Amino acid sequence: MAGRAETERREPVNEQIVANMYTSMRSELNQIYSKITELEMEASEHSLVINAIKPLDPSRKCYRMIGGVLVERTISEVLPAVQRNKEGIEEVIARLNEALAAKKKEISDFEAKYKIRIRKPESESKDDGNRKEGSAQGVLVGPAGSSE
């Protein structure tokens, strides 16, 4: 029975299930992108801290937030810890980039298998050629066919 359940999960029954699976996969892809961006920001902040405290006297006082508690240390104690944290973040980013590539391949295979093509709304495709930059700022547009 377990084999049958896996087959049903892999082979969708109708278009709605295919669409839901595709939406779920795209959502996972977006979550990976978001996490990578978040971690890249953290790595950047770590780099700023490292560059700021590296030239200073190693015996100078330094404060570090550990689990919501501000702790007094010296630069010689804090600098290696910040560098290790940055390296750990970069390793996680590398693993997430691998997961991102795998998810992109999975999505492209899924698109090929079920012949999925993303269509732009007609209004977007018509306006792309003659749209001025910033022309739609602050404009609220109602549903199509509205008489107001």
From TrEMBL:
Give GO terms: molecular function aspect only. Answer: protein folding chaperone; unfolded protein binding
* Keyword Chaperone among record annotations: yes
What's the name of the protein? Prefoldin subunit 2
Q: Which GO terms describe its cellular component?
A: cytoplasm; prefoldin complex
Query: Which Gene3D superfamilies does the UniProt entry name for this protein?
Result: 1.10.287.370
- The answer on whether this UniProt entry bears the keyword Nucleotide-binding reads no
The organism named in the record is Citrus sinensis (Sweet orange)
Q: Name one GO biological process term.
A: protein folding
